[in-house]
Amino acid sequence: MSIICGLPLLECVYCLACARWAWKRCLHTAGHDSENWGIASAEEFEPVPRLCRYLLAVYEDDLRHPLWEPSGGYGINPDWLILKKTYADTQGQAPPYILYLDHEHADIVLAFRGLNLAKESDYAVLLDNKLGQRKFDGGYVHNGLLKAAIWVLEAERDVLKQLAEVYPNYTLTFIGHSLGSGVAALLAMVVVQSLDKLGNIERKRVRCYAIAPARCISLNLAVRYADVINSVVLQDDFLPRTATPLEDIFKSLFCLPCLLCLRCMRDTCIPEEKMLKDPRRLYAPGRLYHIVERKPFRMGRFPPVVKTAVPVDGRFEHIVLSCNATSDHAIIWIEREAQRALNLMLEKDEIMEIPAKQRMERQETLAREHTEEYKAALQRAVTLSVPHAYNPSQYGTFDVLEEGDHSDKSIGESSTESSKKREQKESWDEIFDKDESGHILLKKSHRDD
């Protein structure tokens, strides 16, 4: 009898919990994710629209006779295209890509296309992963995407090394969309770990732009590589917010909207502190650029604003219940809105009539601010007890410290940090090996169980 009397009470508690969840989720919009971030400048955001057009060019069979060229063109000179690899060339080991020598912007660009829903090989790359399966550089990464990145580096290492040596003032840029963003990000990380394999190029020459990025690396790595990797997210894009492993999304019996809704309900009940302390949980990599173009409870698109930061907590942790969650993932929409945002930035600069000298000073100031922001993010990761997170001085990101920093440390602290750095810093030879045919493989200690 007492159990029957308690049922109405349980129903009331359940209804209140559902009402609270619905209230929180309906009020949560994409703008909340980046409301405390800084505004991106035209100088730092300038490459994004152009690189998005390069990604669109990967989908073309013949760049001299394009079929899907946008109104402004791809901005690619076909004579500067070094190579183009299709699914037949990659044998399903990696998504198709192009290598483009951009003389106009002094850049060596390796661009990866996004997921092809009609190709089983792309699904095979996504499904080749388990939670906490692959360790890399003191953190966790997506196993299938890492293998794809290693395959590409093995295939193109000689070409990349030659280009880097012939053009010593050019940057080496890896870009990708969706699935390709994960391959590009992990390729950048592998290259940074093995700079000697590309002729001892400097770390500052390597950069990556992950467009509509997949969650492919653990939080400590996402923050640590923020000086190399930049992720671009359009408004409500579902993929950077979907903590569900990519392999589970495509194995699920539910449709994508249903799965996102179920995951949204589940994550609402998990404290963010608990999420941060899970070392296996994967995140969108590097510095984040969030393009915001819609406002809550308002119709239509507004002039886009680009926010940027290197967040530790609040790193796109909640799915936005929006009808645009999937459309905002499309590269064509990201390119359009990124270009609109850049045009608005440039118009504002023209109105202000900033002299050339002040522009240079602003770029130098921006570089210093970014460096300080990286350091603060790494320190915050330590403060929040993020697994395997350490102070900035323990990594190659900030090898040069300001005078006086060393004086604040005792000899014991310095030796402890040095030992931790040795434990975390993995060389190429410690991670990879070669088989009898000379192909690069993960060493046994890094392979699947």
Describe the structure.
The chain is globular. The chain has about 450 residues and is of the alpha/beta class. It has helices spanning about 1-25, 30-35, 40-45, 45-55, 85-90, 120-125, 145-165, 180-195, 220-225, 245-250, 255-270, 270-275, 330-350, 355-385, 410-425, 430; strands spanning about 40, 80-85, 95-100, 105-110, 135, 140, 170-175, 205-210, 215-220, 230-235, 280-285, 285-290, 305-310, 430-435, 440. It is built from 16 helices and 15 strands. The protein starts with a helix and ends in a 7-residue tail after the last strand.
Topology overview:
Elements: H1 2-27, H2 30-33, E1 38-39, H3 42-45, H4 47-57, E2 81-85, H5 87-90, E3 97-102, E4 107-112, H6 120-127, E5 134-136, E6 139-141, H7 143-166, E7 171-177, H8 179-193, E8 206-211, E9 217-218, H9 219-224, E10 229-234, H10 246-251, H11 256-268, H12 272-276, E11 282-283, E12 287-292, E13 305-309, H13 331-352, H14 356-383, H15 411-424, H16 428-431, E14 432-434, E15 440-442
Parallel strand pairs: 4-7, 7-8, 8-10, 10-12
Antiparallel strand pairs: 1-13, 2-3, 3-4, 5-6, 9-11, 12-13, 14-15
Helix pairs in contact: 4-13, 6-7, 7-8
